[in-house]
């Protein structure tokens, strides 16, 4: 348990606007948009885990503290819940944060639409040379080969 001075230091790093809203961590973070980090008894701990322990109860060994609000900087105990590693992975996938969640034209590096990538796939699988398909769509041969092999755009039908 934190002594009074540490508890006050913790609360002093929290911005609370209402009981329902996210309680934003204003102290040190793991990265600018990341988890809050708090030093307690000479050890670093994540602020959302400490908030859960302070306001809800102990965290069983091996368990994660997940955010219902999907805001890593939030320490509102009403937004936090316990889960397993599998729960955490499922939560991440359902909220679109899993690796590959932004695939196809939603990916930040995409230069093609789904329709264009599918057209390329059909062309090269139908016998058109990769260089011709690349020239048609203004992309490199390696992009065309990656589409054909399924290395990229693998969510498209065969």
UniProtKB/TrEMBL annotation:
<dbReference type="InterPro" id="IPR044930">
    <property type="entry name" value="Homing_endonuclease_His-Me"/>
</dbReference>
<feature type="domain" description="HNH nuclease">
    <location>
        <begin position="46"/>
        <end position="89"/>
    </location>
</feature>
<protein>
    <recommendedName>
        <fullName>HNH nuclease domain-containing protein</fullName>
    </recommendedName>
</protein>
<dbReference type="Pfam" id="PF13392">
    <property type="entry name" value="HNH_3"/>
</dbReference>
<dbReference type="InterPro" id="IPR003615">
    <property type="entry name" value="HNH_nuc"/>
</dbReference>
<dbReference type="InterPro" id="IPR044925">
    <property type="entry name" value="His-Me_finger_sf"/>
</dbReference>
